[in-house]
Amino acid sequence: MLTTEEWYSSAMNRVRLGKTNFVVSQLGFGCAQLMGRVAPKQSRRALDRAFDLGVNYFDTARSYGYGESEAVLGEFLRGKRDKVVLATKFGIDPPQMTPMRQAAKALLRPVFRKAPFIRRVAKRQLGGLFERGTYTRKHLLASVERSLGKLRTDYVDILLIHDAGPEIWETDETFDALLQLVRQGKVRFFGVAADTATFSAWRGPERRSIDIAQFPFSLFDQRAQQVIFETARADHLGTVAYQPFGGGGTNLPLLRQKLADLIATRAATTELRKKLENPDVEVLADVCISAVIRAGTVHVVLCSMVEERYIQANVNAAASTRFTLEELHSIRRFFANVPHQDGTLAKANGSR
Q1: What is the number of alpha carbons within 13 Å of residue 164 lying toward its C-beta?
Q2: CATH code 3.20.20.100 for 4-94+130-250+298-319
Q3: What is the pTM of this model?
């Protein structure tokens, strides 16, 4: 374990998170895989390693790890709560984990690691067990109490409405309860974690006041530039981007193919071709993470990372990049014409 002095000197780039008083690492640790695909010991090793490398923003949710992610994060927080910016969410409840389900999950973890397709099928089947879209005042207050217990803390730095639809902006009850939690000191700041379509309904002079906007943003999905960035700058919001690799390992073959297509075009300079001709783990991390946090409006990019080599590669990318700003602009502009999963383009004009 590093000393406090060593930890701060090793830390990656840090920024103030919008209008909050938090100074955060630009790489955040997404806890979605902890206690789901990843067993307890590996989950804890990943958290410790990321922290030792300078990560201080940790994002979890009630539903992550089938309800167990918050607990392992709570164990990790012992002795370092004041060094960590902690975000959790409410609105999606985990399924009740019976002893049979617990045993099945533990037995299937090795299978999931070797056969991602089986994991995706199982996840779709288990998805029906999650209770979604519960944003009432009663449910919110109860959810926060459960989260505080699991996390072993009396407050969370950031509480996010989890995966709400556009109708959330009309729900007075939810936002009144969030303000109540802030007054009580159980929540420092609050915001919304949702897809781009939800934020499309939020813009305008009568928009809700939030502190944090969390949204997908990657080379494959740059739509936040059109929908969120201008309003985020005007309101001094903290901005947190997730899925920087485009939504998991399924996009990595497509990413490699599109980078190969890019270097075959006239848009790629000789120097850029050299940097992209052998896209190993380090290069892919640099391309995806740098394209997000060096777009100019994103404070934190969240990565779900559990293996040592990926943690290190992501930390390196957040700390510095081999690409110039002009090269990153060229890469984003090229990917702007790659269709997104729902058939839309990443972004119509690929602007900076």
Answers
A1: 26
A2: yes
A3: 0.86
